[in-house]
UniProtKB/TrEMBL annotation:
Molecular function per GO: kinase activity
Keywords: Kinase, Transferase
Pfam families linked: Kdo
Keyword Transferase: yes
SUPFAM superfamilies attached to this UniProt entry: Protein kinase-like (PK-like)
Residues annotated as signal peptide: none
Taxonomic classification: Archaea, Nitrososphaerota, Nitrososphaeria, Nitrosopumilales, Nitrosopumilaceae
Gene3D superfamilies recorded: Transferase(Phosphotransferase) domain 1
Protein name: Lipopolysaccharide kinase (Kdo/WaaP) family protein
InterPro entries per UniProt: Kinase-like_dom_sf, Put_LipoPS_kinase_InaA
Length: 256
């Protein structure tokens, strides 16, 4: 196996489950969350796999892809698997102490001239997508104004930390922001980082990602969106400069 990374903690666990090489991992059936996506001349999918360790079950998220890459500056012709980029970002975020799925294995191998890649991560136990939380609050579960504000500010602070680390997510939708303990002490994590990249300019990161988030954030009132923006910018009021940035974000998020 042309292995790039495997968590020491999981080496024994994979072995106990008879998953000792790339071939066994590639052949292992997983429960797809949805049918694999076919594009770029290949396919890519994500699912769940249950492992057994010391008589207990472990849930692992597994992403598999074949010939599903993109050209980069360093790989202008052959391209690189999109999961390789996501793997690198997940490792980087762990170093920055920003919550994201923990990588347990990343591997690539050429099979009959096809580039195959596997990315396995720990499940985010107790976390759920932000869009599910806000929908539930809107439809079923009444929560206090303070609880909503605490959650929005926690998300804003974590998104800012993500951007301060130099990254732009490029798909920052509520379904890609996971939260835990939403009503008490929110924890925030990011998923689906295969499109993310480093960017030199903080304002560009804010402009690009906050536009996407604002566009896809349902059930947020105007006052909540403003509160989120001010928390993100660490400001108590909307200055002229912030008002201009806010207008640019709104313009981008509402364009068709």
């Amino acid at each position: 196996m042309n292995e790039l990374f495997q968590s020491k903690e999981y080496q024994t666990i994979f072995s106990q489950n008879h998953l000792d090489g790339f071939a066994s991992l590639w052949a292992k059936e997983i429960d797809w969350f949805e049918p694999p996506n076919h594009r770029r001349g290949g396919w890519s999918g994500v699912g769940q796999m249950m492992l057994t360790s010391d008589l207990r079950g472990l849930s692992v998220f597994v992403k598999k892809q074949k010939n599903h890459g993109r050209r980069t500056l360093w790989h202008p012709f052959s391209g690189e698997p999109t999961f390789r980029r996501e793997f690198k970002r997940l490792v980087f975020l762990e170093q920055q102490q920003i919550k994201a799925p923990k990588v347990v294995l990343y591997a690539e191998e050429e099979i009959k001239k096809d580039t195959c890649a596997i990315l396995a991560t720990e499940a985010l136990v107790g976390f759920e997508p932000l869009d599910i939380v806000t929908k539930r609050w809107h439809e079923d579960k009444p929560v206090t104004h303070l609880q909503k504000i605490v959650l929005l500010e926690s998300v804003a602070e974590t998104v800012r930390a993500f951007h301060q680390a130099g990254l732009v997510h490029r798909a920052l939708y509520p379904k890609h922001i996971f939260v835990k303990n939403a009503e008490t002490a929110p924890e925030v994590a990011f998923i689906d980082l295969e499109k993310s990249r480093f960017s030199l300019f903080f304002l560009y990161r804010a402009y690009f990602d906050l536009s996407a988030l604002n566009r896809h954030a349902e059930y947020w009132s105007k006052s909540q969106r403003l509160r989120f923006f001010l928390s993100y910018m660490q400001s108590k009021r909307l200055t002229k400069a912030l008002k201009l940035l806010c207008q640019l974000i709104l313009r981008r998020s509402t364009r068709r």
